[in-house]
């Protein structure tokens, strides 16, 4: 597949990527290269990368515990200490190999360590391939509030290899589908149409490439999310709040990001139908298909207030006002939309209804 050129870095695919990383390491004369992993990517993905590395340098592996719950400044501190103890300097390179937690946090760690060292992202989950590793956003959570601490910083390159997807469970693959559906509903309906026929086998590799193209097109036009890039948050205003609520609750099972965004896309499509006459037939189809893929999140009416309170911390908010990305139609988006609390609750009722 053809390399995609982003703001200041390339997104390479498969062998092209490994050739590029070997050339980059050799050209820059790194004595030691640091690799950030969690326990899963250490076991299943690092061996794949090691087989492709053909440079005579020392590699130091830094392992953290997996999961969104560990995407915080405490974990960053442990990584910064490890880099320091292992002798990292301002000319060091950090390779982040893992899902969105690893690439988000690894990019943040690298871009702040000694005021910034170079880093490379190698996403290993579908979600991180089509979303988290591309676009220059880095960051960590603040408590249960997602991505509240971070900055924009570009990697030297991103390497996409679908071979890593073979190490994932089905639920992790499904989680990543939510972001592809988001691109389809907001930007390219041909992606959305691939989900409509449940008997048709999807071209997953092609969908990955097209999703990255879309995100890159959006980022090139609006890197700092002043306007167009906000469309990438469709489904995320309610979705992130639900995800955070389930993460902090002692009585709820933690959701995948995709499950939460799936709920968000259905509820925000419902709100779109009420505010902008988003077609009823499209709303019905969105609910049918997304529910078929993701099932239903067991949110309860008594959860509504807590979820709505968490929305007040959404990064798109301005002057305390919650801002939504909504739809007038497939590929027809509206940004900075104001929604009443009553309509948010009504949308959750619609989601829960059979």
From TrEMBL:
Q: What is its EC number?
A: 4.2.3.4
Pfam entry (one): DHQS_C
The 3-dehydroquinate synthase N-terminal domain is annotated at: 62-173
Q: For the 3-dehydroquinate synthase C-terminal domain, which residue ranges apply?
A: 176-317
Using the UniProt record, name the top-level EC class of this enzyme in a single word: lyase
Task: Please name the InterPro entries in this protein's record.
Answer: Dehydroquinate_synthase, DHQ_synth_AroB, DHQ_synth_fam, DHQS/DOIS_N, DHQS_C
The residue stretches assigned to a coiled coil in this entry are none
**Cofactor(s) required for function per UniProt:** Co(2+); NAD(+)
The role this protein plays is: Catalyzes the conversion of 3-deoxy-D-arabino-heptulosonate 7-phosphate (DAHP) to dehydroquinate (DHQ).
Query: What name does UniProt use for this protein?
Result: 3-dehydroquinate synthase
């Amino acid at each position: 597949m053809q390399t995609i050129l982003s703001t200041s870095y390339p997104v390479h695919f498969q062998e092209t990527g490994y050739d590029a990383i070997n050339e980059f390491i050799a050209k820059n004369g790194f004595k030691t290269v640091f690799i950030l992993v969690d326990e899963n990517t250490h076991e299943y993905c690092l061996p794949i990368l090691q087989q492709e590395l053909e440079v005579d340098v020392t590699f130091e592996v830094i392992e953290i515990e997996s999961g969104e719950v560990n995407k915080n400044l405490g974990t960053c501190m442990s990584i910064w200490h490890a880099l320091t103890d292992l002798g990292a300097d301002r000319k060091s390179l950090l390779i982040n190999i893992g899902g969105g937690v690893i690439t988000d946090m690894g990019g943040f760690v690298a871009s702040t360590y000694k005021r910034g060292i170079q880093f490379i992202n190698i996403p290993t989950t579908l979600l991180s391939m089509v979303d988290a590793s591309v676009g220059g956003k880095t960051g960590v959570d603040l408590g249960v509030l997602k991505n509240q601490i971070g900055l924009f910083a570009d990697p030297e390159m991103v390497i996409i290899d679908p071979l890593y997807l073979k190490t994932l469970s089905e639920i992790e693959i499904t989680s990543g589908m939510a972001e592809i559906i988001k691109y389809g509903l907001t930007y390219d309906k041909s992606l959305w149409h691939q989900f409509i026929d449940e008997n048709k086998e999807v071209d997953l590799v092609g969908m990955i490439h097209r999703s990255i193209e879309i995100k890159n097109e959006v980022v090139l036009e609006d890197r700092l999310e002043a306007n167009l890039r906000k469309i990438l948050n469709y489904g995320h205003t309610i979705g992130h709040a639900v995800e955070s609520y389930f993460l902090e609750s002692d009585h709820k099972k933690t959701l995948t990001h995709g499950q939460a965004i799936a709920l968000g896309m259905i509820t925000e499509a419902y709100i779109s139908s009420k505010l902008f006459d988003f077609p009823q037939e499209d709303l019905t189809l969105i609910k049918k298909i997304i529910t078929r893929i993701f099932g239903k999140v067991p949110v309860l009416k008594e959860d509504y207030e807590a979820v709505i309170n968490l929305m007040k911390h959404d990064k798109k908010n301005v002057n305390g006002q919650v801002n939504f990305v909504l739809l007038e139609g497939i590929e027809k988006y509206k940004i900075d939309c104001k929604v009443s609390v009553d309509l948010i609750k009504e949308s959750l009722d619609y989601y829960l209804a059979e």
